[in-house]
Amino acid sequence: MQIIQSITIASIPAFIFGVGGEHNGRAIIEIKQVGEEFPSRVHSEYHVLDEDGELIVAIENAPVIVEYQQIVDDGEAPRSIFTKQK
After folding, report:
1. pLDDT for 28-75, tens place per residue?
2. How far apart are CA 35 and CA 60, in angstroms?
3. Strands 42-43, 45-49: parallel, antiparallel or unpaired by DSSP?
4. What per-residue confidence (pLDDT) applies to 80?
5. Would you report the helix, strand and coil content of the chain in percent, each value rounded to 5?
6. Threshold 0.85, pTM exceeds
7. For residue 21, what is the DSSP state?
8. HSE (CB half, 13 Å, CA atoms) of 84?
9. pLDDT-based confidence at 86, cuts 50/70/90?
10. Which long-range contacts (CB under 8 A, 24 or more apart) does 26-32 make?
11. Tell me, what's the pLDDT at 29?
């Protein structure tokens, strides 16, 4: 499964929002893609959320660069090479 790790608004100056970072003193916990695709157009929208699930920033129809991170969503996490086997 992939989650959005960061989103960069391609503007001058560029704005970067990353999970684990802060914006206006609020911690960024999640970035969601919430846009829709219609037959004649695409509505591009991303929500940057805080620890309470409250909206910090909504990015609509802007040119963006999205960085994804692969995460394990099911099953056991991979064993570290530094973990002793029992």
Report:
1. 999 999 999 999 999 999 999 999 999 999 999 999 999 999 887 666
2. 8
3. unpaired
4. 47
5. 0, 50, 50
6. no
7. -
8. 1
9. very low
10. 26/50, 26/51, 26/56, 27/51, 28/56, 29/53, 30/3, 31/3, 31/4, 31/5, 31/6, 31/7, 32/4
11. 96
